[in-house]
């Protein structure tokens, strides 16, 4: 099985998490994408958020983060998911997805095409500007709810 390394970021503010409808995969998802050469998973998550939403974020540290100085460490993901992908161009493959929880840095506005979901919204969905009901998949509901609780 071909595998790609990716990173996703659940951005939390004011008891809500930022999601959008991903046209290609037809799911409501957080920002994320492929990890580039010479990038840590955490750097990738931060870059993907800025590229996709325009927001600057920082990783929410986990309570289990190591505190020693040397060698250097990189923020740990909350978890690593293995996702089955059926891409029309790439075909069947898997994403090894490093999942991070993040907080915005500085002024935050709702980026176009993105929506802030409360825990209730995660379960019941949000109606977008076109009148479509956006309902996240179960893993996004679970992780989004946890991210809100930890932020």
TrEMBL record:
Keywords noted in UniProt: Hydrolase
Q: Which PROSITE patterns match?
A: NUDIX
All copies of the Nudix hydrolase domain together span 2-141
Q: Which cofactor does it need?
A: Mg(2+)
Q: Which PANTHER family match?
A: GDP-MANNOSE MANNOSYL HYDROLASE, MUTT_NUDIX FAMILY PROTEIN
Name assigned to this protein = Nudix hydrolase domain-containing protein
Any one GO MF term held by the record is: hydrolase activity
Alphabetical list of InterPro entries matching this protein: NUDIX_hydrolase-like_dom_sf, NUDIX_hydrolase_dom
Q: Give the species this sequence originates from.
A: marine metagenome
Does this entry carry the keyword Amino-acid biosynthesis?
no
